[in-house]
Structure formats: structure tokens, C-alpha cells
Amino acid sequence: MRMLQRRLVRPTLLVDVGCLSRMREVVEEPDHLVIGATTTQHELLHDARVRAHAPLLSLVARHVGDPAVRHRGTLGGSVAHADPAGDPPAAVLALDGEIIVEGPRGERVIPSAEFFVGPFRTALEPDELLVGVRVPKMGEGWTVHYEKFRLSAQKPTLLGVAVMVRRVGDCFTDAHIALANSGSTPVRATAVEVALVGADVTEEAVTKAADLLDGTMEPFARQGVSQAYLAHLARVLTRRAVVAALSW
Ligand SMILES: Cc1cc2nc3c(=O)[nH]c(=O)nc-3n(C[C@H](O)[C@H](O)[C@H](O)COP(=O)(O)OP(=O)(O)OC[C@H]3O[C@@H](n4cnc5c(N)ncnc54)[C@H](O)[C@@H]3O)c2cc1C
After folding, report:
1. Mind telling me which Gene3D superfamilies this protein's record contains (predicted)?
2. Last residue within a domain, chosen from 136, 167, 184
3. Cβ–Cβ contacts within 10 Å for residue 43, how many?
């Protein structure tokens, strides 16, 4: 829809998969949720199972466009579209989600880390349909946050940070952090994740870890802002997102 809206594509044939009811289900498995591809962002925001077991997806959905966009836009469409600035792809990557696709050769399950291969490019073959996204249910001790920055309400995401952290007592035991619009695909902030695990739950430790983004990210200048500004913004938003997750 985004490409049509911008007149970037003029298809001669358009197939609406929105009416395939099997692709609109949220299925609860013992340790996972399988969210059908045509589940809208509005549904992610309000579905009780998504809110309980994958709250990061609900949080991110709230940041997508406006209510009209959220009523039409789908999780599968956003993931298949693979816009580096897309918010849901970063959350799916932070969640270690799996992308379920079907085609003439049967079903394939692709880890999100292998699914996004470039700007607007994925591991989907032309004859395959994305049917759902499987994400692990959030366990005990995990908290989440999504921090998004745009230059004005109408502008696309300048940078987004999806965070899941787990703490036991005063110590971080796990951290998953993925950035939107900080490269040609959503990217994991691996250096920050490694630095957080085992660190004390203090603002100082979080700032120290977030500062490691310097060496790991390759923010490129866009929307009229410099690379240095984006690198600074990435560190600030990451620190802010982890701190906010702690008070979730
Ligand atoms: C005004 C506006 C503002 C927006 N703001 C934001 C924002 O702030 N953040 C954000 O993340 N997104 C934003 N979006 C994107 C939007 O939320 C949708 O997620 C995105 O446009 C995909 O829409 P869709 O689900 O209708 O998929 P479509 O537009 O129908 O499809 C997108 C692409 O994926 C392919 N595709 C779709 N479904 C499947 C499938 N099941 N299997 C295989 N291929 C498939 C299509 O062929 C197409 O190439 C915005 C869009 C608009 C129009």
C-alpha cells in the first residue's frame, strides 16, 4: 500500500490476501505465539494474548503511523515489505522471531536474523507467501520497551530501538536490542547486549553499554541530519529504552 501510495509501483494485477482467514489467527503454543500474517497492527495492539505474551509487538504497533494505518497495515505486510525504517521488523528481530512461509515446495521457517537481507529485500522467494510470525512467549523477569524518534509527527522513523531485558535481583541476565533504521536492515546491537549481561542494574552500567554502539552501528546520514547526530541519537535512545524497560 505504501508503494502504491507513493506511485513507486503500478501493478497490473493486485492480489488481496487480507481475506485468507487462516492467516489472521493468533495461535497459542506452549512456549510460542504464532501470529498470522494478516493480523493488523490495530489487532496486535489490542489482542489479549499478544499483550500478555509478546508485549513488545503491542508496544511497537502503537508507534506505527496513525489509527487508519494501523487498521489496514499488517504484521506480515510490514515484515515482507522490509523497510529498514519499519518498526515491527525491529521488534520481530529483537524477539528472535521466526518467519513462517509457504510456497509450492511446502513450508519453510526462517529465523528473523536471516530473513531481512537488505533494504526492502527478504529471504522470501517470489512464489512464497509469508503466512505467520512465531515468537517466543515472554518468560519471567523480562521487561520491554520501544523508543522511537522522528523529526516531526509526519516524518518516518529516524531511529527506533526495541529492547527486551531480563533481570534477576540487581543484575541483567539477558538483553535483546534491535534498531530500526540504523542500517540496510533491522540490526541487533550485539555489543550492547553482551555488555549488559552480568552488569548491575544501574543507569551508569546502561550508559556504558549503550556507548558501545559507537563501534557497532553504521548509521548513515538521512533526513538532513549528520552521521554524528545519528550515532549520538542511537546511543541516547538505546540508553533511554533500556532504562524505560526497567520501569515497565
Ligand atoms: C501513511 C503511512 C504511515 C506509515 N507509518 C509507519 C510507521 O510509522 N512505522 C511503520 O513501521 N510502518 C509504517 N507504515 C507502513 C504500514 O504500517 C504497513 O505495515 C505497511 O505499509 C505494510 O502494509 P500492508 O500490511 O498493507 O502490506 P502491503 O502494503 O499489502 O504489502 C507490503 C509488501 O509486502 C508484500 N506482502 C504483504 N503481505 C505479504 C504476505 N503475507 N506474504 C508475502 N508478501 C506479502 C506485498 O506484496 C508488498 O510487496 C506506514 C504506512 C503508511 C501508508
Report:
1. 3.30.465.10, CO dehydrogenase flavoprotein, C-terminal domain
2. 136
3. 20
Task: Extract the C-alpha cell encoding 59.
Answer: 508496544
| Spacing, Cα 66 to ligand 1 middle (Å) | 13
Shared-domain flag, residues 152 and 196: yes
Q: Using a 6 Å cutoff on CB, does residue 37 contact ligand 1? A: yes
Domain of residue 103, CATH code: 3.30.465.10
Q: Report the C-alpha dihedral over residues 238, 165, 111, 30, rounded to 10 degrees.
A: -150
Please say whether the beta carbons of 217 and 135 come within 8 A: no
- CB contact set of 195 (below 8 Å; sequence gap of 6+): 208, 209, 212
Same domain, 123 and 17: yes
From the CB of 123, is ligand 1 less than 6 Å away? Answer: no
> 75 CA to middle of ligand 1, Å?
8
What does each of the 248 residues of the chain score in pLDDT, given as a tens digit?
778 888 888 999 988 898 888 899 999 999 999 999 999 999 999 999 999 999 999 999 999 999 999 999 999 999 999 999 999 999 999 999 999 999 999 999 999 999 999 999 999 999 999 999 999 999 999 999 999 999 888 788 899 999 999 999 999 999 999 999 988 899 999 999 999 999 999 999 999 999 998 655 666 667 788 888 888 999 999 999 999 999 87
Cα 83 to averaged position of ligand 1 atoms, centre (Å): 9
Report the CATH number that the domain containing residue 160 is assigned in CATH: 3.30.390.50
**Which residues span the domain enclosing 11?**
2-136
